[in-house]
Design brief:
The complex is a heterodimer of chains A (about 550) and B (about 600). With about 550 residues, chain A is mainly α. Chain A is built from 23 helices and 2 strands. Chain A is globular. Chain B has a 3-stranded antiparallel beta sheet. Chain B has a two-stranded antiparallel ribbon with strand order 1-2. In chain B, a hairpin with a 4-residue loop joins strand 1 and strand 2. The chains are: A mainly alpha (about 550), B mainly alpha (about 600). At the A-B interface, strand 1, helix 6, helix 7 and helix 8 of A face helix 19, helix 20 and helix 22 of B.
Chain lengths: ~550, ~600
Amino acid sequence: MSSTVATTDVPWLTLLVVWPLVGALVLWLLPRGSRAAGAADADAITAGPRRYARQIALAVALVEVGLGVAALLAFDAGAAGEHQLRETHAWISQLGVSYAVGVDGVGLALVLLSVVLVPVVILAAWREQGSGALPTERLRHYLALVLVLTAFMVAVFAARDVFLFYVLFEAMLIPVYFMIGAFGGPRRRYAAVKFLLFSLAGGLIMLAGVIALYLQGPGGPQGFLTENLTGLDLPVGTERWLFLAFFLAFAIKAPMFPVHTWLPDAAEQAPAGTSTLLVGVLDKVGTFGMLTLCLPLFPDASRWAAPVIVALAVVSILYGALLAIGQQDLFRLVAYTSVSHFGFIVLGIFAFTSTSVAGSSFYMVNHGLSTGALFLLVGFLAARRGSARIEDFGGLQKVTPVLAGVFLVTGLSALSLPGLSTFVSEFLVLVGSFGTNRAAAVVATLGVVLAAVYVLWTYQRLFAGPVRDDLAATRDIGGRERWVVGPLIAIMLVLGFYPAPALRLVDEPAATTVTHVGGEPPAVDMPVAEDGDHEGSEQ
Amino acid sequence: MTFTVPEIAWAPLAPVLIVLGAAVVGVLVEAFVPRRVRRPVQLGLTLAALAGAVVAVALLWDEVADTGGTDVLGGSLLVDGPTLVLWATTAVLALLAVLVVADRTSTGEDAFAPQGAAVPGSGYEEAARAAGLQQTEVYPLVLFATGGMLIFPATGDLLTLFVALEVLSLPLYLLTGLSRRRRLLSQEASMKYFLLGSFASALLLFGIALLYGFSGSLRYAEIADAVRTVGGMDGLLLAGSLLVLAGLLFKVGAVPFHSWTPDVYQGAPTPITGLMAACTKVAAFGALVRVMYTVVPDLRWDLEPVLWTVAIATMAVGTVVALVQTDIKRVLAYSSIAHAGFVLTGVVALVQSGITAVLFYLLAYGAATVGAFGIVSLVRERGAVRPGARTGAGAAARVPALASAGSTADVVGTGAGAGAAAAAEDRAGVGTGAGAGPAGADADGEEPPVEATGPVLGEATHLSQWAGLGRTNPVLATTFALFLLSFAGIPLTAGFTGKFAVFSAAVEGGAWPLAVVGVVASAAAAFFYVRIIVLMFFTSPHGGPRDDADEEARPGAVVVTSQGFAVVAIAACAALTILLGVLPGPVLDAVAGVAQLLP
């Protein structure tokens, strides 16, 4: 490790964690303003600092992005395989727990994804102000929860301590639970409880694994540090059980077939912004956990389980895509496409080649951008129509050409059109898997075809054809909404044509992980290490 | 025979002496201090005594940490590290519980019957109420019970154990029967508690006799020696140990000795329930740990199957039965049973870290418990039917019945007299109740909460009455949610740290099946905690799922303003819950540093 990295003084990651918490606290503590007494109607709050809750939240989120960029600048991309920006402090030394953070390239990429999506989500919730959907007073709580969630998201991707990771893994549920349960659609209670119970069940099984893992490790006041638990010579049976305990929690989170059933409900009932964070970032914690905990900690068990997991991943790809085709509700549709995409990510991780693992790492970021944008766009559509059912739309492209175009581009990113960043990652996953899991890679390719069906057919039903009379007056995408999706599409395009910077972040960690797990050297020569020749492939 | 005066080291006894001494003084205060100033005097005395006990523990701490502790009164009391931790925990929790006990609504009404001896529903009782009598005997009673709780886990011989058990139990039997509302339910609970408690005492005593027969001694250390050396009387030894353990397991509320818990927790005045649920459990688990670790550790292969079964059954029964409860106090009662199971996994582990884990868990659980029951004591129902109730006639008929249940007795439908009782109901102040605050119409057009009018009655313990509390009283509901999350063991709350510690100890002690069952039970238990959160936050008042037919006739819940003691206690509990969740290091270190039992 280069010494410049080790001696970084500014605790960027801690700042990234603490800053949104401060913001949330400020939002909650905003004084009520002068005309408090009689204001039974929450919408009536027009005076007092609470009026500026949105602006404050957005400012906090933008500063957070600035902090993220600063962290990126402090990060030495040349040593992306190392955990950098490290901080280690004793937290509960009695239990062997440390507050230990640090990111490698993958962690940093996901941290950046998190902080970039947050202002977008805040901006997407903006309009609800006073429109009846979210009264000002409740919007304030919602935004505060978003900021709390931001802190947890950043921290979970930066955790270098298994206990800390677990704590955040579980603590994240609480803000999301309230974000779905208090601000969602008509069946939100059911969706919120289902989400919580699925996640909690997985988490508690993981807790048993966490405890058992600690007792296998060296113990002591830093016994939970990931590096102290890596490379243990575990008995075969123990290792497999521990692997299963961790993997199940991650598979539920990810979500993989057959434990994915909570996602469509949650996504359908949650506000669009919540779904964006839930699917775009939170579910990545599952795949991130597989990548950074399951593989390095339990390499033998990972290889042992890989055939089954690869099979499940392929099933997820096809099953998610098929169900997506059959959905009537746009939110559920996007949720099922995610199940399909998570199948690709898991396939890449458990193919154990550095190409596929790098592809999966990059896929996580791209999927966050692409699906996040898709959820937000569906949210715009639903807000215009008051319904998210496909049959309620038709012919919109003549009325709202910009919205249609944006939707098309985003949709094409979901089917991995060359030129968009998702293509690079999906291609890498398939190429990387082909060497070790030929059959799986071939079958998974069918998922791409199915993706074309669900994207294009959906587009056709929503936007093509004659304009429906009741939709003739639909507003096109407005200024604020352009700012919501514009940056996401811009990032997807940039990374689609020039993925090298992102790949530089994920290549080395992928190689390190594959070395840990003892996977085979890349079967196919990695085409990306040089200078992004994907630009050629999409022309 | 000569009688030798035993050497008594008074200093290590100070915490116990302060509490019991203050209790005796409290009795005198009852007799000699004028009624007007009795309450402030009693309250000040009680709080000072408990705070003094905490200070005394703090002064003893360093010495005990250095020397490992001393035995006093000829070995009857063992003042070692765990003892001090338990004393501090008990005293702090009792202090907080007393604050809840002392609280009154802004119109000066407390949780206790004006005249405990009056027959429910009688004219005598009505006269006592009309005269505005207020109980102050509860303070010395609480102090006596607390004194017993301090002695209980510190005893070094079986006879003192039994005496301490009685000292702590008898005042609690009394206190249980003193509820102002639902007098019959309260007295029934008291009776049940007394009968079953006596039964358990008898079991314990019988076990003590058998162990004495086996070893010829009542001292823990000598019995432990006998277990190692004496052979051929295994039947006596096993039967004695099991009976003693049964007596202790009764006090912690472990299955199959749990059946009193829900009834007693429900019937007792809520502040007393908080005291019982938190402090009694601390004391009883302290005694259980000492017996398990110092008296019968060599029997672990014989006792393990029994204790494993008990622990698993306790977790399972507590969790499963709690799922179907509709009364908040019964939910918390069954949850306390489940928690007893979780603690047992740490006790059964029989490893050094198990002691630390159990001690920490008790503090974490106690803080959340006192706070949760404190909140329950503030959420009251009102005698009003919301406009547009579906069954007008049925609802109207129901109101007097409810009022009677709230004010005088549990006799539903006592007829015309009950209506009068409702009218005589003292009006308690209503603070930021329904309607005020940012109640706001719901996003999807659910009806706004209905302004309740009418007298404030007893506690709104039916779960459906808690619907929408998060909208009308966000701070209170958030705090309650915090306690529930701590019970559920969500990270960053004290409950999680405790659970983690006991499960770790269990796995370390080879009891990993217990840890697995514990984890599964935690997952199931999360469901009913979450259900309450759903009710409070995601359900508009009266808009919740209807699980029984007469629900629509139930009055809504309001939060009463009080003199503020309970709020202080609740805030302290909340702070403890967060602190022990986020930064448990110092406390864990302190506990682990002294968690060495004297032999």
